[in-house]
Known about the structure:
Largest sheet: 3 strands, antiparallel
Distance between the termini: 87 Å
Number of strands: 8
Shape: elongated
Order of helices and strands: HEEEHHEEHHEEE
Structural class: alpha+beta
Oligomer: single chain
Radius of gyration: 31 Å
Number of helices: 5
Strand order of the largest sheet: 1-2-3
Amino acid sequence: MAIKIEKKIKGYNVVKPEDKAASAAAPAPAAPKEAPKAEVIQMHESLERPETLVGSTYKIKSPLFEHALYVTVNDIVLNAGTQYEQRRPFEIFINSKNMDHFQWIVALTRIISAVFRKGGDVTFLVEEMKAVFDPRGGYFKAGGVYMPSIVAEIGAVIEQHMKMIGLIHDPEMDESTRKLINEKRAAYEAAANGKSAKPAAEASAEPTNANGFPPGATLCAKCNTQALVLMDGCQTCLNCGYSKCG
């Protein structure tokens, strides 16, 4: 039987009968085995809300408001009962007796809840909210931490909740840094009283501000705590170790 070739020949190869027999006898290559996949459920916007969610409620008492705010963050538990179990924030509610800001509070809770349900990395919300400043000025909350606005404090509450469920991890301060901060604090307190520097453990109790740092301390730009003092010509934070001199 003749076969008509209609395309241009670019190359050829002669196949002998013994080649056909060898290829037929050769075993077919085994298909590669697929690696076992864990049945892990991840957050996705199509994930339906369960009937029951676990959560926590946080109280915010701001001098800007007459009544306290109560922030409730509810979590969904993914892969419950397995080694991949994880809590992820799913929705947020903010309640207060003060109705003056009801409109923007409802809008904020709906937007944040929508971001939570979208899935992915939602930790960026914390930094975005903590960067919001009130043109009328901020305030110091209990513990001496400065809050530039009420929205920033709501962001701090969300950060606290994310740390609790393991979504955000605090960088641990090593022992050498902690020791250095204690030595600097002891040296500063001794110099302020005209005494020689003593180890932190032997330093006598001195007057402090509301958050336990020297009364002359100013606000640290890194941790928002009144713990920044002038030492050796350089502003140094006695809370987080931040220094403007590097």
